[in-house]
Every structure is written in C-alpha cells, then in structure tokens.
Structure prediction request, 201 residues.
Amino acid sequence: MAVDSDLIALVRAIGAGDRTAVTRLLDAAPALVVARVDRAQEFFLDACRAQVYAGDTALHAASFAYDTDVARQLVEAGADVRARNRRGAEPLHAATIGAPDSSHWDPARQRAVIAYLVEAGADPNAQATGGVTPLHRAVRNRCSAAVDALLRLGADPYRANDNGSTAVELARWTTGRGGTGTVEARAEQQLIVGLLAKAGG
Prediction:
C-alpha cells in the first residue's frame, strides 16, 4: 500500500512540475517507475486537466504533463513506453490530452514529449479501447501541434476507430468535448483540417 500512495504522490508531483519531489520519491522507491494506479485511486488531476485511470503509470503522468525530461528519466529507469491503462491508453495517448483554452496546454512542450515517446518506442498508431489512436485523441482535443507531430511521426489519418471514424472525419465534426466550441478551439480545428489535407486527408 505504501508504494500505491507514493505513486499518487509521484503523479501529483509530476503534474505540478515539482522535480525535487519527483527525484526524492523515485530515489526512495525505485519500483514506482513501473507501478500502476489502482482502480480505487482514480482521480482528476486539476494541474493537467487529466483523468488518472487504473493502470496509469508515472510515464502516463509525465506524458500528459508534457515533461520530456521526466519521461526520459523514467524510460531510462525501466518504464514501459507501451504500458496500457484500463482504457487501453498508452503514454502516447496521454500526451495528446489538452485543451486550447487551458492554462496548462503548451503546444511546444506537447510536441516535444510526443516526439520523445515515439523515439523511445511508442507506436503512433497504437489503439486504445474503441480503436482510438493518439491522432484521434489529438484531433478530438483540438491540439494542432500534437496532430502535426503525430502525422510527421507516421500516424495514419485514415485509421478508423471501432465506430468507423477516422481522424480526417473527426477533424470536421463537432467532437462533443467540452471547450471545443471556444474561439481558440475553432482556430485549432481549422489548423488541424489544413494539416490533414496536406497529409492527404
């Protein structure tokens, strides 16, 4: 149980960008590198506007926090870049979390962590539950920098999810996600449509 509560503390420290606490926790309990969140511990991390699910790891947290340095630290210590949470999402899926109107969203940092994860072995076409790829998520979240990075790294804009929807189609539809009707999100949507058109969509 100690490892579990330390894992939540680690996830929170990563989300807060507290490198001192991250290093202290990992030094004290190296097993946290591969530990997974338990179902009873799921929570919403306000700092990153991210839901933490059972099966999430510290690398998922570094990914949605857009912290490439911590992600590298974790991978070098043995973290699994293909670890899946209970929804089948890998760290690369987590890296596409974002909202154009949020103070946390940082396109440059998001792009960098996506590039690092793929370099470290993540599959840009990995499918979570429902056949959802990182590109589907990036489009749905209206994060054009993430879409651009994924396309450059080999993501397939024509890969359909289990409902038959491709990223190309999602780019043009209302996603139903809160915040996607904002001015910022609509501007991102136009950029995404253009990126997909250039990629052959």
